[in-house]
Amino acid sequence: MAWKKTTINIDGRTMEVPAPEIISASRSTDIPAFYADWFFHRLETGYSVWNNPFNGQKSYVSYRNTRFIVFWSKNPKPLLPYLPVLKERGIGCYIQFTLNDYGEDGLETGVPPLEERIETFKALSETLGKEAVIWRFDPLVLTDSISIDTLLEKVGRIGTEIHGFTEKLVFSFADISSYRKVKANMDGSGIPYREWDKVAMEEFAGKLSRMNHNKGWNLELATCGENLDLGKYRISRNRCIDGDLITRLAWRDKNLMAALGTSIQEMPSSGFADMDDLPYGAVLLPGNRYFISSHRKDPGQRAACGCMTAKDIGEYNTCPHLCEYCYANTSKEAATANWRMHRQNPTAETITGR
Question: Highest taxon of the source (predicted)?
Answer without folding.
Answer: Bacteria
